[in-house]
Amino acid sequence: MSKIIGIIILTTVISLILLSLFLTLTNSSPQTQKGSPENIVQTYITSIVEEKFNNSYSLLSEEIKTECDFTQYINNIEREIELFERGNVIHEKTLELEKDLKVIVYINVSIVNTTVPFGTNEYIQEEKITLIKEDITKDDSRWKILETSFFNSCEIEN
């Protein structure tokens, strides 16, 4: 009898693992229009996950960069790395504050925790990213990240 229960549990665990792998491999991120606020956010998150911090830092606004040099940025980015490595990011909506000058991109970060043998729970966290268009006098103006709900400051902790 205990052998049958063991086989059932093993089969269930293997099925859950295979289902998880299938869902992960078939979940492709939708492509965003190059240069759009959503694309900047997607590029920022990808750069953080791939540890391309020069690229992620380049997507920040000049206002943030004056408060936070690159070294401070690197020293204060741990929460973002953990958040985006563990979570599945989904674009929720984009809200235009000033026509073609300032927008807020809302994303949901879904984190699923699993425990053996059968426990799982999902935590969904909404994040807000404010972007502004910099260099608006030039033809090559770009969206830059002005503020996020997950990266608050570059203050050095004592």
Distance between the termini: 60 Å
Write the element-wise H/E pattern from the N-terminal end onward.
Answer: HHHHHHEEEE
The major beta sheet can be summarized as:
4 strands, antiparallel
Provide the structure class: alpha+beta
| Low-pLDDT regions | none
Output the strand order for the largest sheet: 1-2-3-4
Oligomer status: single chain
Can you put this structure into words, describing what you see?
It is built from six helices and four strands, in the order H-H-H-H-H-H-E-E-E-E. The protein is of the alpha+beta class and 158 residues long. The chain has one domain (31-148): Nuclear Transport Factor 2, Chain: A (Roll). Strand 2 and strand 3 form a beta hairpin. It has helices at residues 2-26, 37-49, 53-58, 62-67, 70-75, 78-86; strands at residues 88-98, 102-115, 119-134, 142-148. It has a four-stranded antiparallel beta sheet.
Summary tags:
158 residues; alpha+beta; Nuclear Transport Factor 2, Chain: A; four-stranded antiparallel β-sheet; 6 helices; 30% strand
